[in-house]
Amino acid sequence: MVLLILGSAACSTQPLKLSTDSADTRDDGLVKVENSKLDMSFVRPNVNWSQYTQLYFEPVKVTNDHAPDYKPPRIDRISDGMNASYELREQDLQKMADEFHLMIQKVFNNEQPYTLVDKPGEGTLVIEAAVTDIRLSAPREDTRRSYSSMGKTYSQNSGSMVLLASIKDGGTGEVLAKAADRGQGFDQWRQNTAVFNWGDVRTVYRSWANSLKNALIQAGAETQK
């Protein structure tokens, strides 16, 4: 899953193309990005992105909430067991949040052009991110019958999740961009275990953070021209 807030490909030099259709302008002034790689991407026109040198990440929100059209997977009580569950525990949600912020620290390190700060202010972009509508491809490993019987469960991928994000000006609080995208783990058949699933989560976060970094660098360079 790659969430690129500004909608450009990580290695692309193609400038942002905003829609000229009045129907694609939101009430808050954000305009749809036509060449976005995301399900939805909106940005405020004429923002001087080069003025921002610092990033402040709000604590990410990770929830068990689902979209209105979500239909819980059917649990086979014979093969999955009576205690099988697709819902993540509070400790799992907290670990997902912790892993997110650890990855942010790794990607936005001292070699990058943006400095991570512990409070917003002038010249700072505030990043509000949320992970939601998490859909596992198999019941949680510790709830499966196969877990206690030393059996194995295989799936085509770990599952999917939706990543929502909003970027704000740290001085004024003005919303500069919003995006939403659904992504999933590696699309290949393999044994479904907690170890592999957590590896997929970290890979998703790494891609998200690198894409965000590259998009901000590109946007900053474009506004300096």
Briefly note the CATH topology name. Answer: Double Stranded RNA Binding Domain
* Uncertain stretches: 1-12
Helical amount = 10-25%
Order of helices and strands: EEEEHEEHEEEEH
Number of contiguous helices: 3
Q: Helix/strand-derived class?
A: alpha/beta
Rg over C-alpha atoms, rounded to the nearest angstrom: 19 Å
Q: What integer is the average pLDDT?
A: 81
What CATH architecture would you give? 2-Layer Sandwich
Strand content: 15-25%
Number of domains: 1
Question: Largest sheet, described in full?
Answer: 8 strands, mixed
CATH class value? Alpha Beta
Secondary structure: number of strands: 10
Which outline best applies?
globular
What distance separates the N and C termini?
A: 31 Å
Task: Please render the helix and strand layout as text.
Layout: E1 31-32, E2 40-43, E3 54-57, E4 61-62, H1 90-107, E5 115-116, E6 124-136, H2 145-148, E7 154-155, E8 159-169, E9 175-184, E10 190-191, H3 194-224
Parallel strand pairs: 3-5, 3-6, 4-6
Antiparallel strand pairs: 1-2, 2-9, 6-8, 7-10, 8-9
Helix pairs in contact: 1-3
Description:
This protein has three helices and ten strands. Helix 1 (90-107) packs across helix 3. It has helices at residues 90-107, 145-148, 194-224, and strands spanning 31-32, 40-43, 54-57, 61-62, 115-116, 124-136, 154-155, 159-169, 175-184, 190-191. The chain is globular. It has one domain (22-224): Double Stranded RNA Binding Domain (2-Layer Sandwich), CATH 3.30.160. Strands 1, 2, 3, 4, 5, 6, 8 and 9 form an eight-stranded mixed β-sheet that branches. The protein has a two-stranded antiparallel sheet with strand order 7-10. The longest helix has 31 residues, at 194-224. The protein starts with 30 loop residues before the first strand and ends with a helix. It has 225 residues and is α/β, with parallel strands linked by helices.
